């Protein structure tokens, strides 16, 4: 799937991903390849980008609140701030 993470300052991540784990406002959740369409609110916390598998390499970001949209195997994350950790 294609993942894009945007802040008001610009793009933080753009590329392919196996999956992404995010802090929702009511708890963490995960989106994998070919996930059903959805829109969800995100809380402050750690976002994990899975590169190739559930146990493979990953990239982590501390994010502030925002939203995520999943549509046609594209995941767009819009957040107030994100910093790679």
Number of separate structural domains: 1
Helix count, DSSP H or I runs of 4 or more residues:
0
Coarse structural class = mainly beta
Q: CATH architecture, please?
A: Sandwich
Beta-strand percentage? over 45%
In percent, how helical is the residue content? under 10%
Across the major sheet, the strand order is 2-1-9-8-5
Runs in which pLDDT lies below 50 for 5 or more consecutive residues are: none
The largest β sheet comes out as: 5 strands, mixed
CATH top level label = Mainly Beta
Instruction: Give the overall average pLDDT.
Output: 95
CATH superfamily: F0F1 ATP synthase delta/epsilon subunit, N-terminal
**CATH topology (level 3) name:** ATP Synthase, domain 1
Order of secondary-structure elements: EEEEEEEEEE
Q: Give the termini distance in whole angstroms.
A: 22 Å
Shape: globular
Number of strands: 10
Radius of gyration: 11 Å
Key descriptive features of the protein:
67% strand; 85 residues; ATP Synthase, domain 1; single chain; 0% helix; 5-stranded mixed beta sheet; globular; mainly beta; 10 strands
Structure write-up:
The protein is mainly β and 85 residues long. It has a single domain (2-84), classed as F0F1 ATP synthase delta/epsilon subunit, N-terminal (ATP Synthase, domain 1, Sandwich), CATH 2.60.15.10. The chain contains no helices and ten strands. The chain has a five-stranded mixed sheet with strand order 2-1-9-8-5, with no helix packed on it. Strands 4-3-6-7-10 form a five-stranded antiparallel sheet, with no helix packed on it. A hairpin with a 2-residue loop joins β3 and β4 (27-32). The radius of gyration is 11 Å and the shape is globular. The model has no long low-confidence stretch (mean pLDDT 95).
